[in-house]
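Deliverable D5.2: sample structural annotation.
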Amino acid sequence: MINPNLRKTIELYSTRSSEELVQFLNGLSKPSLIALCIDLLTLYFNDKNSSRLRELTTLWMCGFQPNSEKLGYNGYRMDVDAGRRVDCEVKPQNTDDPRKKLNGGGSFNAYTLERFSRDLENNPNNFG
C-alpha cells in the first residue's frame, strides 16, 4: 500500500501547479515529510525499470559526476594529473534481498559490438 501523502504528492506534481504542490507539502508535519521521502526513495530505488538512483549512488561513491546526457557514459571525472576527462559506465543490479542494498552486481544486456569497439578505444572505468 502506498503512503497516501506520497500518492497525493505524485498526483499534484504530475497534474497540478507547483504552487499547489508546495502548499500541500507545507501543510505536512516533519515526520510525515520524512516518511514521504523514505517511501519515495524506496519506491524509486526498487523500481526494476529504473536504475537512475542506483547509478547515481555508485557514481558518487566512486568519485564520479553523473553525465547529464541521455546517451553515452553514465559518469565522468577530471584527471587533473593527466589533464583529461575519465569516463565510466555503471550497471548496478537491483536486489530483492532486504539485507543488501547494492550488491555489486550488474549487467550490460544492451551492449552492442559497435559500442564495445568505441569503448575499447576510450577505455572507460566500469562499475557494477
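Annotation notes: The mean pLDDT is 82. Helices lie at 4-15, 18-26, 30-45, 52-61, 113-122.
The annotation will be released with the project's public dataset once the embargo ends.
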